[in-house]
Write a structure and sequence with these properties.
Length: 179
């Protein structure tokens, strides 16, 4: 098992109907991944995670079993780790918003009314993957450089970040054909 450091994040599975619903939603927006939840390790055996009742800090042993940690995959300085930890702790109590899932789905289909963009940009509420993205942004780390708005992040996006697509010989052949 990987020993996380403060500031690392984990991706986990959600069991039951909730996990199946989140997985189905992720699949609809092209983010099919074996994970449906994200949390940030803040040290001393605790994680911060967004939950329907609001973001909470809980002992790691009470959290869902991590599938993968960002440990060693995203290199962080001690100062960045301290900032991520502090930001995560500051967000405890932040309300959850199921509407953010709808917004992320709309973004996938290139439908982004201004009121939807403003709603997601308001950090007064967030889902688990948005919390991870937000604490990294507050530490000056942009996990995604693809032009997305802050908060347009699913657990599947974080999964892809930790598991980049490998270039295959077929990909190289297609690239040569396009030159």
């Amino acid at each position: 098992m990987v020993t996380p450091l403060p500031g690392d994040f984990a991706l986990t599975k959600i069991s039951g109907i909730t996990g199946r619903l989140v997985a189905a939603g992720q699949a609809l927006v092209g983010d099919a991944a074996p994970v449906q939840h994200a949390m940030v390790y803040v040290g001393f055996g605790h994680v911060v995670q967004a939950m329907p009742g609001g973001a909470e800090m809980i002992p790691l042993e009470e959290a869902s079993e991590p599938v993968v940690w960002s440990t060693g995959r995203i290199l962080l300085t001690d100062a960045q780790r301290f900032a991520i930890k502090g930001s995560a702790c500051d967000l405890v109590g932040t309300p959850y918003s199921f509407l953010d899932y709808a917004s992320i789905a709309l973004a996938h289909y290139r439908i982004r009314p201004r009121w939807v963009r403003d709603f997601v940009a308001d950090t007064g509420h967030m889902i688990c993957s948005q919390l991870v993205d937000e604490v990294y942004l507050r530490a000056g780390i942009h996990l995604f450089d693809d032009g997305r708005l802050p908060g347009d992040v699913t657990p599947g996006d974080l999964w892809k970040l930790l598991h980049p697509k490998r270039v295959t010989s077929t990909d190289r052949d297609l690239w040569r054909l396009t030159k």
